[in-house]
Automatic annotation (TrEMBL):
Pfam families tied to this protein: Aldose_epim
Organism, as annotated: Blautia wexlerae
InterPro entries referenced in this protein's UniProt entry, alphabetically: Aldose_1/G6P_1-epimerase, Gal_mutarotase_sf_dom, GH-type_carb-bd, LacX
GO molecular function, one term: carbohydrate binding
Origin: domain of life: Bacteria
Name listed for the protein in its UniProt record: Aldose 1-epimerase family protein
GO biological process, one term: carbohydrate metabolic process
Cited CDD domains: Aldose_epim_lacX
Length: 294
């Protein structure tokens, strides 16, 4: 079911399937969120939980049992219920159920609230451990944004601008074995807080910057300065991704708490890189903002 929000002639379209952001347009009708064209990527902004990225061979060990775990978790295929809704806000809820327990043996509640205030969309995540055991999890966002380019331009006409200087060192990704490697790092060509985007930097899938100094990044056209910004104060890392080859007209900015597997990881979920813990009866909140730069 689709949910529409509006504020000052800005419009957002959301879906109860995955609590996913499908559209964000300004008063002029310009669209900023990827349209889920399956030619390149059939998602637009999946919620990543209880894992960011993959587990080895799609299997992981939790509470001494082997579970099948989809890449980025199961939220993208889960129907959320709507607990609150106004003209400019909505709250989605996913509770542990028969299907989630097949992959993840914890009793939990996961809320995602959206609030639209004109050119800024706030997203608030809340994880509650209803289980009697300590709960292990990752959480992340994966919004895809249309490239702010003119005809004849592509992603290489765009830059990422961070609020602080970064070292722009990422872990090399082994596309064959689907894993990062602590021992192999790549230094991206950048200046200060600005990272020019190139098609070749995505040849091996996502670029993962762990523990960024910044918690605010802008994706803009290098000439016009137009695009989007993402504020991620409660997320430690940022990944960026577009399909290899440079033909897809979008880029994902992915704030992560957690990551895909590393070559050095074993198959125990509690040992996964960047794993988070939540005690029984406790909850944890995470905030994110998307702003349009017009």
């Amino acid at each position: 079911m689709q949910i529409k929000l509006q504020s000052d002639n800005y419009h957002v379209l959301l879906n109860t399937l995955g609590a996913e952001l499908n559209s964000y347009s300004n008063p002029s009708g310009n669209e900023y969120v990827w349209n889920s064209d399956p030619t390149y990527w059939l998602r637009s902004s999946p919620l990543l939980f209880p894992t960011v990225g993959n587990v080895r061979n799609g299997e992981t060990v939790i509470k001494d049992h082997i579970y099948q775990m989809p890449k980025h978790g199961f939220c993208k295929e889960s129907e959320f219920e709507v607990t609150e809704q106004t003209e400019d806000s909505v709250t989605f809820l996913l509770k542990a159920n028969e299907e989630t327990l097949k992959h993840y043996p914890y009793d939990f509640k996961l809320y995602l609230s959206y609030h639209l205030n004109g050119s800024t969309l706030s997203m608030d995540y809340r994880v509650i451990n209803k289980d009697s055991d300590l709960m292990y999890y990752h959480i992340g966002a994966h919004p895809g944004f249309m490239c702010p380019v003119n005809n004849g331009e592509n992603i290489e006409n765009c830059i990422l601008r961070f609020e602080k200087e970064e070292n722009f060192i990422s872990y090399e990704y082994d596309i064959k074995n689907l894993e990062f490697n602590f021992d192999h790092k790549v230094s991206q060509k950048a200046e200060g807080n600005t990272l020019p985007l190139t098609i070749s930097m995505f040849d091996q899938d996502a670029v993962f910057f762990e523990h960024t100094n910044s918690h605010h990044v802008s994706f803009v056209n290098a000439v016009t300065g137009k695009g989007v910004s993402v504020y991620y104060p409660d997320f430690e890392s940022l990944a960026i991704w577009t399909p290899a080859g440079g033909k897809a007209p979008f880029l994902c900015l992915e704030p992560w708490n957690g990551s895909g597997i590393f070559h050095q990881d074993d198959d125990i979920f509690a040992h996964k890189h960047g794993i988070l813990t939540l005690e029984s009866g406790k909850e944890k909140a995470y905030h994110l903002e998307i702003s349009l730069i017009e």
